[in-house]
Design goal:
- The chain is α/β, with parallel strands linked by helices.
- It has two domains: 254 residues, 3-Layer(aba) Sandwich (Carbamate kinase), CATH 3.40.1160; 95 residues, Roll (Archaeosine Trna-guanine Transglycosylase, Chain: A, domain 4), CATH 2.30.130.10.
- It is built from 14 helices and 15 strands.
- It has an eight-stranded mixed sheet with strand order 3-4-2-1-5-7-8-6, with helices on both faces. A five-stranded mixed sheet has the order 11-9-12-13-15, sandwiched between helices. The chain has a two-stranded antiparallel sheet with strand order 10-14.
- Strand 12 and strand 13 form a beta hairpin.
- Helix 2 packs across helix 4, helix 3 crosses helix 4 and helix 7 runs parallel beside helix 9.
- The radius of gyration is 22 Å and the shape is globular.
- The two termini are 34 Å apart.
Length: 368
């Protein structure tokens, strides 16, 4: 089963799962959800949670109606509700000894390559520290022109930039049906989707809940992003207690299957970058290491050309100036000039701060 085979999982929960129709916080549900997250972490899976609810919780605290909010007012309400959201999660998760961190993202954080790479590194470092990232759109500063508008697409972008294996979108339905299950009792659940064609598009339900702004249409858009990112995606019922355990036990949901592998997707993402910003000239030993699937280390770099920033796309050339590969640099050009030819253990001493040991990680490199 796709979830069992995943090492890194993104889970998106909508505001309707946290707050019921009577505007009461569904605390018992969140307590059971925390048990699911504990189960995943005990099985050595890395977990990212994308949660809606900041504006809904802000409205609850201020006792105002979300539907009447204008954008500028909603930004202030989101700022108030974000603290409520984190306090709610933290109160429940700490009882299961689950450590949470907060990450607020805007559309630009995932669309601009350098910022996307920085976000990916942050996720990796949080995992190393034993923390679970809790992600939300930064509603307090995002304008209507740069907003995702829903957390389904945000979750798919998070899955994409973090290199996750699986995204689970929890909804108030069991998955994608061939007709609206709320209107038709004979509606059939579609268990696997390989291609989002016109037939699948016709199944989309456009109904939305009071608290959520999503609906099936945005979930299909999220699925399209996952399919070209090498990431499995599920639409599943989140209203049930222990929704993750329910997927593991019954697998009653809709899975969207990736079109390409995660590695191929990442390499395609790298190679489709705008023109490289610089060149790294490396020795024969480095080329040999790269051919064996190793990362590029500072010791193998003989010289550099061009001026570039951390995360920029650069070419790797052999001593005859023939291009061997391309990749995303973990250092800027000035830093590489200082550490080239040096052993990785000396990088921190030379630069004066702790940094990556690889100049270009093998996962951020494509052989030409």
């Amino acid at each position: 089963m796709y979830l069992n085979n995943s090492k890194q999982v993104v889970i998106k929960i909508g505001s309707s799962l946290l707050i019921d129709d009577k505007k009461n916080i569904r605390k018992k549900w969140l307590i059971e959800f925390a048990k699911d997250i504990e189960l995943l972490t005990k099985n050595k899976k890395k977990v990212i949670i994308v949660s809606s609810g900041a504006i809904a919780l802000g409205c609850k605290k201020l006792n105002i109606n979300k539907k009447n909010l204008k954008l500028d007012k909603s930004q202030a309400v989101a700022s108030i509700g974000q603290i409520e959201l984190m306090n709610l999660f933290n109160e429940i998760f700490k009882k299961r000894k689950l450590n949470l961190s907060q990450i607020l993202l805007t559309l630009e954080d995932t669309e601009i390559r350098r910022r996307a790479i920085n976000a990916k590194r942050t996720f990796e470092n949080l995992f190393d520290l034993g923390f679970i990232p809790l992600v939300n759109e930064n509603d307090s500063i995002a304008t209507s022109e740069i907003k995702y508008g829903d957390n389904d697409r945000l979750a798919s972008r998070v899955a994409q930039i973090s290199g996750s294996d699986c995204l689970i979108l929890f909804s108030d339905v069991d998955g994608l049906f061939d007709s609206n299950p709320k209107l038709n009792k004979d509606a059939n659940l579609i268990s696997n989707v390989k291609e989002i064609d016109k037939k699948i598009e016709n199944y989309i339900s456009k109904s939305v809940s009071e608290h959520g702004t999503g609906g099936m249409k945005t979930k299909i858009e999220a699925a399209k992003i996952c399919q070209i990112s090498g990431c499995y995606m599920a639409i599943a019922n989140g209203l049930k207690f222990r929704p993750i355990k329910n997927i593991i036990s019954h697998n009653y949901c809709t899975w969207f299957l990736p079109k390409i592998s995660k590695l191929d997707a990442r390499k395609k993402w790298i190679i489709s970058s705008i023109s490289p910003k610089g060149d790294l000239i490396v020795d024969d030993g480095a080329i040999l290491a790269l051919k064996k699937g190793k990362s590029l280390l500072a010791a193998g770099i003989k010289n550099i050309q061009g001026k570039f920033k951390k995360g920029d796309h650069v070419k790797i050339l052999d001593k005859n100036m023939k291009e061997y590969a391309r990749g995303l640099s973990s250092f800027n050009s000035e830093e590489i000039l200082r550490i080239k030819g040096q052993h990785s253990s000396k990088i921190s001493e030379i630069l004066g701060y702790v940094s990556k040991s690889e100049v270009i990680h093998k996962d951020d490199m494509v052989e030409i």
